[in-house]
Amino acid sequence: MTLQIRQKSDIEIAQQSKMKPIVEIAKNIGLTEDDLELFGKYKAKLSNEALAKLHTKKSGKIILVTSINPTPAGEGKSTVTVGLGDALHALGKKVVIAMREPSLGPTMGIKGGATGGGYAQVLPMEDINLHFTGDIHAITTANNALAALIDNHLQQGNELRIDQRRIVWKRALDLNDRALRKVVIGLGGPAQGVPREDGFDITVASEIMAVLCLSTDIEDLKRRLSNMVIAYNYDQQPVTVGELGVEGVLALLLKDAIKPNLVQTIEHTPAFIHGGPFANIAHGCNSIIATTAAAKLADYVVTEAGFGADLGAEKFLHIKSRSAGFEPEAVVIVATIRALKMHGGMKKSELHLEDIQALTRGLANLKKHVETIQSFGLPFVVAINRFVSDSEAEIEELLAYCGQHNFPVALTEVWEKGGSGGVELANTLLEVLDKEESRFRPLYLLSDPIDVKIRTIVQKVYGGADVEFSAKAQKQIQEFTARGWGNIPICMAKTQYSLSDNPGKLGRPSDFVVHVRELKPSIGAGFIVALTGDVMTMPGLPKQPAALNMDVDQNGNAIGLF
């Protein structure tokens, strides 16, 4: 009889790992206890004084981790990010990881957690995946405080002549709750407010999340908050937070949330976990403050951007890099044989079976993302995140393909082995950094017209044929340009599963047209959102949400986060 050993879950591995006091982790990167605001023994925020001291320091090299288009089979981009950081740490490099905070929406929906996996995780995993230091709650509160102040302004005489039919600011909740996409508020008579149609976004899609992540300090935060468009008046002119006069109270609610959070990996590599915008409906990158602080404290920063290179990486390079004034030195493109086989037409239920032909067909998706990173002028490495179901023949086929195309490539086994499973990737990355210099160049100019910028992204990043703008979007392009909003980046809201705006078109579709149904001005964040296809800013829960498996034991330990 063969004895089968049950594989430990991510949360079991995390709970059995021994953390060091966060003060000790901070000391290893030149920070003292006075530089920290402690949240217990293992979590801390950097103080404003500590952040101010870092400005004069030289910046380390920023490594961006992205991936192919994700599938339900999973790519493990966050796991590779953590594992690569641990591997560089094991090689004696001074490294800090910079990642986003998980949203409760996907945590309780499908993912079940977003702190890496296996032996490549950031800790304390349960805290980070749940309430952490309260940053996302603070953003939710600020978002909804603004909504309450808008409705109170209507009730108290409406001095700004806000047209309640044209209020664009929505309420927010950090959960997947489709029932709140469209609501009616103010019912019950004059004392209950002005009746109007409203709706909810998930908190990570709130412009305040983007504003916090793109701000460089408190004053910049106030400026950006002030510029947010909340409604239009009866003359159809925009009304801003500054005109309402409430940027101060919003900044007050965010004064602690803007400070980056310092934690550690299982292998005690320092990690800043801060900010959490989605990459399919927002810009998908952790905060500029966190990434900048990491760069000032380390020789290498390993940071990730959400979903595939068509979303998170494009937005990192066109939005975050421009706002921050830095650029990555190299990019790691994560791919899995499982996902490539799905892109090659294989069903999820069959992925454990060897299928070289499906893998070969799916490689077109990887090639497109490589071409995109090359078009930005950036060096790269392909990271093959190995799963136990991958056959030797499939691995050899993928390695051979990368060799034929001169793609630097490394096999990674960080889920199973932690940092030691990422040493090959780390060494390959260091070789690429030594050999190649970044020749980074954006794919569009800020001065390009709005429609030209969108078309550039569709054609050069997605590989599409063209863009079709709805009548509403065409009108908005004219209106936004006339208002002076034309010289800012574009933030595409698009399905993560396909290069197109149709989630069913896997692999590398061609000759497709992307449909832009509406534009949304995020003037505080400093970009225009282009809504494509059926993408929603408030997701819904699946039939069997991950929340059904979650519990807490008698000692207060979380169960079932992943």
Descriptive tags:
562 residues, alpha/beta, globular
Question: How does this model look, in words?
Answer:
The protein is of the alpha/beta class. The protein folds into three domains: 303 residues, P-loop containing nucleotide triphosphate hydrolases (Rossmann fold, 3-Layer(aba) Sandwich), CATH 3.40.50.300; 120 residues, Domain 2, N(10)-formyltetrahydrofolate synthetase, CATH 3.30.1510.10; 83 residues, Formyltetrahydrofolate synthetase, domain 3, CATH 3.10.410. Helices cover 36% and strands 19% of the residues. The chain has 20 helices and 25 strands. The strands form six sheets. Strands 1, 2, 3, 4, 5, 6, 14, 15, 16, 17, 18 and 19 form a twelve-stranded mixed beta sheet that branches. Strands 20-22-23-21 form a four-stranded mixed beta sheet. The radius of gyration is 23 Å and the shape is globular. The two termini are 30 Å apart. The mean pLDDT is 95.
Short description:
The protein has 562 residues and is α/β, with parallel strands linked by helices.
Helix content: 25-40%
List how many beta strands DSSP finds: 25
- How is the CATH topology of the largest domain named? Rossmann fold
Query: How many domains, as an integer?
Result: 3
Number of continuous helical runs: 20
- Second rung of CATH, namely the architecture of the largest domain: 3-Layer(aba) Sandwich
Annotated CATH homologous superfamily of the largest domain: P-loop containing nucleotide triphosphate hydrolases
Which outline best applies?
globular
Radius of gyration: 23 Å
Measured by DSSP, the beta-strand proportion falls in 15-25%
